[in-house]
Design brief:
The chain has 295 residues and is mainly alpha-helical. The chain has 2 domains: 30 residues; 256 residues, no CATH class. 38% of the residues lie in helices and 8% in strands. A hairpin with a 4-residue loop joins strand 5 and strand 6.
Length: 295
């Protein structure tokens, strides 16, 4: 076995020491390189959410930038699936949840959180791409939407209004009722096979009523300004980027709580006896699209 030179031995020892000191917190961890995704990769990243109504899409992209918080939020949403409306908003507030408000804004949509939590590599890549290449991510959404439109899949219906132009907007027909579409990206972004029924490729049948109780989390004030690549959440520009990701705090009307406070007398929401009984008896899920067995 060839022995290292004295220089090589010192270099190896120095590298080991640097790693040890970094783990111990004495030296700072090396900065992560800003990611870069090409158009094809971005089209793939956004494909499964590109047809979300704009208000839901904006919240989903913002929440993806806090991908490490998604799994725990998904568990909370599943455990509280029997709550809706004011009761759900009250539980979120009373539990003093430590996650970013953009993540909490998705708690009424457990199927979305479950989708994100079940593929954390995708969620992290989506969030990183949105921070590092927001304009390119928005362009990828538009490319996919135009494909779905050009092939005849994406059209207005009872639940959504699709506005086609230089930029395609998808908005809820009823602003207080936000639907989650179900579709196969391999189908709706490709030319239809002969005889394929185009009308059934995108289903907007299930949704969630989002009332005034959820305004503190930004609902009702979310949109895109596609021509300027601007994202509006809680009526304010969303400006979290790769550079400021460790310090950026988006303004919301909800109080923020540190994770440690959950052990200082602020326990998670306790179910009432009525709620526990409803859960034991198989109380139907309030958000219809949570029933994945119905898909």
């Amino acid at each position: 076995m060839r022995r290292l030179s004295v220089f090589g031995q010192r270099t190896a020892a120095g590298a080991i020491l640097a790693v040890t000191l970094t783990i111990a917190g004495i030296l700072p961890a090396p900065a992560l390189a800003q990611p870069s995704y090409g158009p094809v990769e971005l089209d793939r990243l956004v494909a499964r959410i590109a047809l979300y109504p704009d208000p839901l899409l904006s919240q989903t992209l913002a929440a993806a930038t806090f991908s490490d918080q998604i799994p725990e939020a998904a568990r909370w949403a599943d455990q509280h699936h029997y709550l809706s409306g004011d009761a759900l908003a009250r539980a979120i507030s009373e539990d003093r949840l430590p996650w970013d408000p953009s993540v909490q804004a998705l708690l009424p949509f457990p199927s979305v959180l479950d989708m994100m939590a079940s593929d954390m590599t995708w969620t992290a890549d989506l969030g990183n791409a949105f921070m590092a290449q927001r304009e390119a991510v928005m362009d990828a959404v538009q490319r996919n939407r135009h494909r779905a439109w050009d092939y005849g899949y994406l059209r207005s219906g009872g639940q959504v209004i699709v506005r086609n132009g230089p930029f395609i907007e998808i908005v809820p027909s009823n602003p207080a009722f936000v639907v989650v579409p179900y579709y196969d990206p391999l189908v709706v972004f490709a030319a239809p096979r002969p005889g394929f029924v185009i009308g059934g490729a995108i289903r907007f049948g299930f949704g969630v009523t989002i009332g005034a109780a959820f305004r503190p989390w930004g609902w009702g004030y979310n949109r895109f300004e596609w021509n300027t690549h601007t994202v509006i959440i809680n009526n304010t520009h969303w400006d979290r980027t790769w550079v400021n990701r460790t310090t950026y705090v988006h303004p919301y009307k909800v109080e923020r709580y540190e994770a440690a406070r959950r052990t200082e007398g602020h326990e998670l929401h306790e179910r009432t006896e009525h709620e526990r009984e409803a859960a034991r008896n198989g109380h139907p899920r309030i958000e219809e699209h949570r029933g994945r067995d119905r898909r």
